[in-house]
Amino acid sequence: MPVISVVIPAYNAETTILGTIRSVQSQTFSDFEILLINDGSTDKTLELLSTIDEPRLKVFSFENGGLPVARNRGIDLAVGEYIAFIDADDLWTPDKLEFQLAALQRQPESGVAYSWTKFINEEGGFLYAQKPIFFEGNVYPQLLTVNFVANGSNILVRRQAIEAVGRFDTDLKSAEDWDYNIRLAAHGLFALVPHYQILYRKSSGAMSSKVDVMEKANLFVIESAFEKAPIELQFLKKQSLSNTYKFFAKLYIEYVPTRDGIKQASKKLKKALQLYPPSLLDLETLRLAIKLVLLQLLPGEVAKHLIQLFGKNFPMVPVQNQD
Q1: 121 closest CA partner among 206, 235, 245, 60
Q2: Whole-angstrom Cα distance, residue 38 to residue 17?
């Protein structure tokens, strides 16, 4: 019986699925099964999977049910003591499973291990790195305010933790990973692997580009989470909403750089500051404000060029810190 079950939901993933599977095959820890949940693909995903010579790979095909449903199907089929999730367009560094498993074995009281994330473009080129965060142990308060785990391709989870909190919420069209992480954190402890091990692919077709869908889902997750949160943590709700509105502002700038999109981004940032004024002192907030000023005052292409130049010369995470 494999120690780890790796669940890969795949829907029309012909352009990235082979790279994702190769990144799993290249893991330094090798005692795992790969459960590929084909979520009703209509492209060449299945055809490509049939070319892979990998005895640990098991392919299961279902009618399209959406990402949370596909992950739940993977959980139901998994036999490993630990379960990891990776989306069909993301990548892992070779030591991801080894380091996360070691962290959980060192900390038997922890149910979840997570690492840091680098963001890549559609071609696999580096975009930027997540700012290092060092939350571990009881991270429930921090996860209520922001999804620092960053994406659904990150966590390694003990089976006992999954059985305790249940499955992904299939009613959510986005932010289902944040909802799940909050529930896991409410149940138990998290272990941190302080290395960049997740390569999260950002693409124009990703869910994060559908800002209205993302907004509704995130607000629902916040309301649901704080309905269950204890009284002593209710004061964090405004900060949580503020962080989420800043995230919306960032998405509008990145994916909807039109006049209306910039107007929406300004509204979201203003709302974020009204909800939690201390965020004015946050570097990310200042960067967003600078981008908005440039986009409002300068022609589109000039503003975009200056923003790219600004990001290259003043990155959130210095290159030497990205190990």
Answers
A1: 206
A2: 11
Q: Is the pLDDT of residue 53 over 90?
A: yes
Distance, CA of 284 to CA of 278 (rounded, Å): 12
Residues 70-121 have pLDDT tens digits of 999 999 999 999 999 999 999 999 999 999 999 999 999 999 999 999 999 9
Closest CA to 35 of 82, 105, 99: 82
Cα gap 8→34, rounded to integer Å: 7
Domains and CATH numbers, the chain: 4-207 (3.90.550.10), 230-318 (no CATH)
Q: Give the pTM.
A: 0.92
Contact 142, 215 (CB under 8 A): no
Q: Which positions ≥6 away from 57 have C-beta within 8 Å?
A: 21, 34, 36, 49
Smallest Cα–Cα separation from 180: which of 38, 95, 68, 276?
68
Kindly write down the DSSP assignment for every residue of 148-166, as one continuous string. Answer: TT-STT--EEEHHHHHHH-
Chain centroid to Cα 182, Å, comes to 13
Q: Which of 272, 268, 275, 241 is nearest to 252 (CA)?
A: 268
Tokens of 253: 């700038």
Token pair, residue 131, equals 């700012």
Q: How far is CA 284 from CA 2, 137, 254, 315, in A?
A: 42, 25, 14, 11
